[in-house]
Design goal:
181 residues, mainly alpha, 434 Repressor (Amino-terminal Domain), 2 domains, 65% helix
Length: 181
């Protein structure tokens, strides 16, 4: 598999698009075509790459770069190494693996793939101090927000974030009660 295909698959799973169909709908392509892209049996047009970048909430230039690298002749691929810029080479962070909430917050605030609304909410000291979401809760928020956030304002997003965090904690508490019974 190419870096491009690996990136698409990994990011799709991190964002909670458990099926190709859900991501394909978000990007405006068919699940069959997405399968071909992920299986490296199709080289998408620039337009499709940009739609996938938007659906996956990643830097459009980076995804376009990876697509161009994938379609380049083998002897030219050596010239497609990403140079460290201001943001550096992007990595996909799986926040659910981060135990320390403050570390998760710092990584999130510096993550170029995270949208501005999410960063604004996590920059709010009062909101953060009150809820202190775990890495797992942050990952849930990112997945849910990506799927259902179209047209939501900052106030609405904060309400959704609180609900996700409280719901997550309620389920954890119930699981602990059940396991102690």
């Amino acid at each position: 598999m190419s870096e491009f295909s690996d990136f698409i698959i990994t990011r799709r799973k991190i964002l909670g698009f458990n099926t190709r169909k859900s991501l394909a709908q978000q990007a405006g392509i068919t699940p069959e075509y997405l399968k071909k892209i992920e299986d490296k049996n199709a080289i998408p047009s620039d337009e499709i790459v940009l739609r996938l970048a938007d659906a996956l909430d990643v830097d459009r230039k980076q995804l376009l770069f990876l697509a161009k690298k994938m379609s380049a002749p083998e002897e030219a691929k050596q010239f497609f190494e990403l140079k460290e810029g201001k943001e550096g080479k992007k990595e996909i962070t799986n926040y659910s693996e981060i135990v320390n909430p403050e570390k998760a917050r710092q990584i999130l605030l510096n993550d170029a793939s995270i949208n501005k609304t999410i960063k604004t909410i996590f920059s709010d000291e009062t909101f953060w101090e009150r809820l202190k979401p775990t890495g797992e809760e942050i990952q849930d928020i990112l997945s849910i927000f990506k799927k259902y956030s179209s047209g939501i304002d900052l106030k609405g997003a904060k309400i959704v974030f609180e609900y996700i965090i409280k719901d997550h904690r309620k389920h954890i508490s119930m699981a602990k009660l059940i396991s102690n019974s």
